[in-house]
Amino acid sequence: MTAQEVVTVEQAPSSGGAVLLRATDVSKHYTLRPDGLARRRRILRAVDGVSLEVRTGETLGVVGESGCGKSTLGRCLVRLTELTGGRVEFDGKDITGLSSRRLRPLRPGMQLVFQDPQASLNPRRRAGDIVAEPLLVHRYGDAAAVRRRVAELFDVVGLSSAHRDRYPHEFSGGQRQRIGIARALATEPKLIVADEPVSALDVSIQAQVLNLFADLQERFGLTYVFIAHDLGVVRHVSDRIAVMYLGEIVELGGTEALFGAPAHPYTEALLSAVPDIDDGTGTAKASRRERVVLSGEVPNPVNKPTGCPFRTRCAHARDLCARERPSLTGTASGRLVACHYPLAG
Amino acid sequence: MLSFALKRFASALLVMFAISVLVFLIFFATPGVDPAARIAGRNADPATLAQVRHSFGLDRPMPVRYLLMMRHLLIDRDLESFVNRGSRVIPQILQATPVTLSLVVGAALIWMVAGVVMGTAAATLRGRAADPLIMLVGVVGVSLPAYWLGEVVNLVTQKQLHSSVFSWVPPPGYVGIGRDPGQWALHMLFPWLTLALLYAGIYARLLRGEVVTALNEDYVRTARAKGLSERRILLRHALRCSLIPIVSLFGLDFGALVGGAALLTEVVFGLPGIGKLTYDALQNLDLPVIMGTVLYAAFFVVLANALVDILYARLDPRARHA
Amino acid sequence: MPDQPLLDVRDLRVSFRTRQGTVTAVDGLSFSVAPGEILGVVGESGSGKSVSMLAVLRLLTNPNVTVSGEVLFRGRDLLTLPDREMRSVRGREIAMVFQDPMTALTPVYTVGWQIAEQIRAHEPVSRREAHARAVQLLSDVGIPDAASRVNAYPHEFSGGMRQRAVIAMALSCGPSLLIADEPTTALDVTVQAQILDLMRQLNEGGSAVVLITHDMGVISQIADRVLVMYGGRAAEEGPRRAVFHGPRHPYTWGLLDSVPRVDGPRLRRLPTIAGVPVTPGSLPEGCAFAPRCRLRHERCEERPPLSVGDGDAAHRDACWLPSGGRAALRLTTRTATGKDTDTEVAS
To answer: What is the model's pLDDT at position C337?
Structure first.
């Protein structure tokens, strides 16, 4: 799997912009302490050879179950963690090996929004100071300019700037997430990596925050990498979606194509596992697709299966799947799928 | 489990070795100090100094000196106290050990039972008058230093009320358990209570916090939903999990006390234990004795640590693989 | 409901004494569960859905809680039952499964021990027999190699396995009612599908189920009847088909519309419910949903009763809007939400 393959088959019409972020064969392995009698070191392959690119102005959704490496990948993409292997280019610059000093001028351009606004906001600092912090770190201007910018950011994310002197616990969950978004927006980033930004919120609040993400993208031309486990949420926000399983991308394609006819058996199983709402409008998938219920659970990433990582739970697995790891290759419909026997074209 | 225990003991041995090297460096390799003069004590004559130099090999290389020290300590056991002419250090320590063990084991039993009962009672009576009352007793216990409380106890039992209520209290001192178990217990009773009062308060407070937290845990709610009795929920679920941190603290306290931290209690009650021995040696700058007691204390603290870890793994299945 | 209800909750009230005064978490809730049916209870945080079920089993141990009303289980009022009799209901007749399987089991005992403990609390069986039943139960809920996994500690199980073990424990005495509080929320979606299948199976075995969730999809897949809660009260209740195909309460509309779907058209902006869910401390006098409702009017100052609409007699809602033409009203609110600036009302 090389970057070239990704480039050649990339043709989704919605992603017409220049490549802002390119990951090539990115890996992140953790070495675990030797366990008891087994003397040899065990290696946890959290992210294992992931290649993708994100174009300016688009939203790439990354979806998968817990432990699939989607959060680790998010941290790799903005160099919040050192890579074990591979390369990340942001805005045309290779940032893989940059020292933290060299990385610093690039930091304002790429920001993170975290899942738990409760845990990612310092409880002893006022909301206004939290949002102002990145401005001070990156020397935005004098105190008055910073204050004006903070007021502006509060307005942008739909918070009353009268509340800048409140502490995080005085806000509701949705408002706290807005503070987190304002902080990420402070340095006028090009790229925002959002790691499960709405999964801690009630559905009615989740919808408000998702709309905010959409509005901000339109207003500032933001590029998102949106990491989530909720397929409905990912479908709603993403132009393209990468499906991860055991540290690898098993399928990557345009949202409509991927949800319409999944090519990888795991994508199919994931989609069919979502309990959809039958509201009588006749779109419920029961009519369209057989329900596929996966047996067993995700294998331990320390002992990944040989060949295809999904073969141990796959109904279509054959001999070849155990022998050879399928590479992420393009299909006729312009999708990328890592499967020897894909379901759809 | 067994391999875990073996590994833990192996690492304890390694720590002991490191400590012995450290002790050696402090006593024999502190720059600008003549170790011979230190060991020989104040106002030593040249002949003694020469003897010390020779027996500790002070003119020979460092590793040899270390080995000689260990040989004096462990194999020949002929380390001599020059301050107390002729008295050997190791037999002194061996003599003091049962005294300290008697004191600490007895006190530990009392404070563990009292601490667990008080802590659990306070936790279950939370919100009622008894809870703050029990905790007050705990605070009082913690706030009374052993040297003060011991003196007060002595004053009351030996002087003020000795002729009336406390006529049965023997004079301070130690009687071996092998010689007369009844007298042994009678002599130890007030030292036990004095030492235990301090720790019972700390343990009761700690356990109360743990039990209160545990009673709010999901698994206690599950236990209740199962239809178990409140008594069973408290004892088998909440208390069982709360004891884990208490046990590890207990091991550390126990090790430190056996290692000499019961010094104040021993001194006040005239018990010739390790603490008292160290105390006297420090007052006289009796270096060989200090050397011996430091290593002895280290041995008990390290041993207690290892035992705590193994016990912890026994109590908490989650710790077994860590 | 042809049969007499298994569980009949009447005018349940749960209030907490706090420093700011008394707050009401459940405010006059009435509902019933028929033998063998699955009742889905849906609502956001603070709707009182979990608290009301804990109150049913008298699991609210906080001394500052006051519970009133009637909880009739097979005709007996659980709220007035002596402790000893209540204990024999818990775990034997009514079992409960909680949200987080990671913390629901006592960490220091094996899974089998904990299942056997429940069996022995209610039935005079030997240790050996209880253990054998634990193995059977674990195998019934789909834990492979149950005979050896029965001796594993909770931390040696994955989240999905633990939830299976908790369910096995809940089923150990063959309860006629299982209350499951968000049993799949902490689990991955493929595991959730397995657990929901398990719930269906045990329902087919004859147990009634109360399933509490915030996920409309889960309710839609599994429930026979639906109870939508808001602000400690019932906003709407009825047969699943009626509630999902013809929802009547504006809050139910909002819940259904604000969920991004995995099928159907993709909207650029989602319809939202303005503002934040009410908290027990800020419950209004009238309709609890009125402050967030786009169709509120003067009448909403007054608390609406749960009443039958123009269709199914089992389908009731608590709203002052005219009972006819609700579907058309729903469409108007949906188009209105697109333009709304859905910032939260500052609290």
So the answer is: 53
Distances from the Cα of A317 to the Cα of A18, A246, A308, A321, B120, angstroms:
38, 17, 9, 6, 57
DSSP secondary structure string, A228-270? Answer: ES-HHHHHHH-SEEEEEETTEEEEEEEHHHHHHS--SHHHHHH
Which residues share a beta bridge with A94? A89
Say whether A158 and C344 touch across the interface (CB within 8 A): yes
Q: Which helix (H) or strand (E) holds C193?
A: helix C189-204
Cα C165 to Cα B159, C101, C175, C298: the distances in Å are 66, 9, 16, 51
Helical pair C159-171 and C189-204, crossing angle rounded to 10 deg:
10
Classify burial at B158, counting beta carbons within 10 Å of its beta carbon; exposed 0-12, middle 13-18, buried 19 or more. middle
Residue A7: band (very low, low, confident or very high) from pLDDT cuts 50, 70, 90: very low
Entry field: residues in chain B: 322
Which of A11-25, C10-24, C53-67 has the lowest average pLDDT?
A11-25
Distance from C-alpha of C14 to C-alpha of C23, rounded to nearest angstrom: 9
CB-nearest to A297 from C158, C214, C255 is C158
Residue C93's pLDDT is 95
Q: How far apart are CA A261 and CA A331, in angstroms?
A: 13
pLDDT(A4) > 60: no
B134 Cβ contact partners less than 8 Å away, ≥ 6 residues apart: B118, B121, B122, B125, B204, B208
> Do the Cβ atoms of A35 and B3 come within 8 Å?
no
Q: What pLDDT digit, counting tens, does each position of A180-212 carry?
A: 999 999 999 999 999 999 988 888 889 999 999
Query: Cβ(A342)–Cβ(A317) under 8 Å?
Result: no
Whose CA is closest to C317, among C326, C325, C308?
C308
Helix or strand (DSSP H, E) at C239:
strand C233-239
Distance separating alpha carbons of residues A295 and C78, to the nearest angstrom? 40
- Tally Cβ neighbours within 10 Å of residue C106: 25
Kindly list the strands in the beta sheet with A329-330, ordered across the sheet, starting from the edge strand earlier in the chain: A110-113, A191-195, A223-228, A59-63, A240-245, A248-254, A336-337, A329-330
Q: Which residue of A has its CA nearest to B322?
A: A35
**Cβ contacts of residue B282 below 8 Å, gap of 6+?**
B290
Distance CA B74, CA B20 (A): 12
Residue C22: strand pairing partners: C17
| pLDDT surpasses 90 at C287 | yes
Q: Please compute, for residue A45, the number of CA atoms within 13 A of its CA located in the half-sphere on the CB side.
A: 20
Q: By the 8 A CB rule, do A247 and A69 touch?
A: yes
Res A304: pLDDT: 87
- Of the candidate ranges A210-219, B100-109, B165-174, C105-114, the one whose mean pLDDT is the lowest: B165-174
CA A44 from chain center: how many Å? Answer: 20
Q: Quote the CA–CA distance of B83 and B281 in Å, as a whole number.
A: 9
Cα C78–chain centre separation: 19
Reported ipTM:
0.88
Chain A stretch 143-162, residues whose beta carbon is closer than 8 A to a beta carbon of chain C: 158-160, 162
Task: Calculate Rg over the CA atoms of chain B.
Answer: 24
Confidence (pTM): 0.85
CB atoms within 10 A of CB C223: 23
Tokens 């995995």 found at = C262
Query: What is the chain C residue with the closest CA to A276?
Result: C217
Which chain B residues are within 8 Å of C107, Cβ to Cβ? 219, 241, 316-318
Report the C-alpha gap between C297 and C320 in whole angstroms.
9
Nearest to C16 by CA among C26, C28, C6, C3: C26
Residue identified by tokens 């087919």 is C204
pLDDT of residue A24: 95
CB interface of B with A, residues 1-20, below 8 Å: 3-4
For residue C27, the cross-strand partners are: C13
